[in-house]
């Protein structure tokens, strides 16, 4: 498949036949049903986009360098403040009013349907940059990052989880039964098995 761009692409999201991929220079590459159409988004101002997540094809968040957070409405993107200028690397949400973003220095941000804010308790647990985030539902969310950093959210608080690794962790995927597959540097692949999969 031709992406329609020469930009490096760092993240992809898909739902109901729609595909969004984001990358260097603020590029957004969209699948229109038969091919990809790609363009640099003016709202990105040339900065790299590193994460994308949506609740619908015409309602998605794009995040990246310098605290950049863009809201995509299916036609155009507009900048939204997260109150920080740190680089953002991961996005995930359980719904349109429950979205998480992670980035440099262990910072975790949350969108509640109205605005983005720093999650102070979660952001106090590590200074390692967080590179990825995923979840099974609003009460079972994981994020991971440098030096084996792994955190879990239970719907109220974030806690540290011992990953058993010091490798940089860069990708996460949650299964329907609560297991989490984690991948990272130096060919690292980890599997988290919950003690209580019914949560």
Describe this structure in words.
The N and C termini lie far apart (39 Å). The chain has one helix and 19 strands. It is globular, with a radius of gyration of 16 Å. The protein is mainly beta. Strands 1-2-3-4 form a four-stranded antiparallel beta sheet, with no helix packed on it. The chain has a four-stranded antiparallel beta sheet with strand order 5-6-7-8, with no helix packed on it. The chain has a single domain (9-169), classed as YVTN repeat-like/Quinoprotein amine dehydrogenase (Methylamine Dehydrogenase, Chain H). The protein has one helix spanning 120-123, and strands at 9-15, 18-23, 27-31, 36-40, 49-56, 59-64, 69-72, 77-79, 88-95, 98-103, 108-111, 116-118, 130-137, 140-145, 150-153, 158-160, 169-174, 180-184, 188-192.
Q: How would you sum up the major sheet?
A: 4 strands, antiparallel
The counted number of beta strands is 19
Mean model confidence by pLDDT: 95
Envelope shape: globular
Strand content: over 45%
Q: Number of domains in the coordinates?
A: 1
Task: Give a summary of the structure in a few sentences.
This protein is mainly β and about 200 residues long. Helices cover about 0% and strands about 50% of the residues. The protein has one helix at about 120-125; strands spanning about 10-15, 20-25, 25-30, 35-40, 50-55, 60-65, 70, 75-80, 90-95, 100-105, 110, 115-120, 130-135, 140-145, 150-155, 160, 170-175, 180-185, 190.
Key terms:
4-stranded antiparallel beta sheet; 1 helix; 199 residues; mainly beta; 51% strand; Methylamine Dehydrogenase, Chain H
């Amino acid at each position: 498949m031709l992406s329609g761009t020469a930009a490096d692409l760092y993240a992809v999201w898909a739902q109901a036949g729609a595909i969004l991929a984001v990358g260097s220079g603020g590029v957004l590459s969209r699948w229109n049903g038969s091919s990809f159409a790609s363009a640099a988004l003016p709202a990105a101002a040339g900065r790299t986009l590193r994460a994308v997540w949506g609740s619908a094809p015409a309602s998605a968040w794009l995040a990246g360098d310098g605290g950049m957070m863009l809201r995509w409405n299916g036609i155009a993107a507009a900048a939204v403040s997260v109150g920080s200028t740190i680089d953002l690397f991961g996005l995930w949400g359980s719904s349109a009013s429950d979205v998480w973003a992670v980035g440099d220095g262990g910072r975790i941000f949350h969108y509640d349907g109205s605005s983005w804010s720093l999650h102070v308790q979660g952001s106090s647990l590590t200074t390692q940059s967080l590179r990825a985030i995923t979840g099974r539902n609003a009460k079972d969310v994981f994020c991971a990052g440098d030096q084996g950093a792994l955190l879990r959210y239970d719907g109220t608080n974030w806690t540290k989880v011992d990953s058993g690794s010091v490798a940089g962790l860069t990708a996460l995927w949650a299964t329907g039964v609560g297991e989490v597959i984690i991948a990272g540097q130096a060919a690292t692949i980890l599997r988290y098995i919950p003690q209580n999969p019914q949560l």
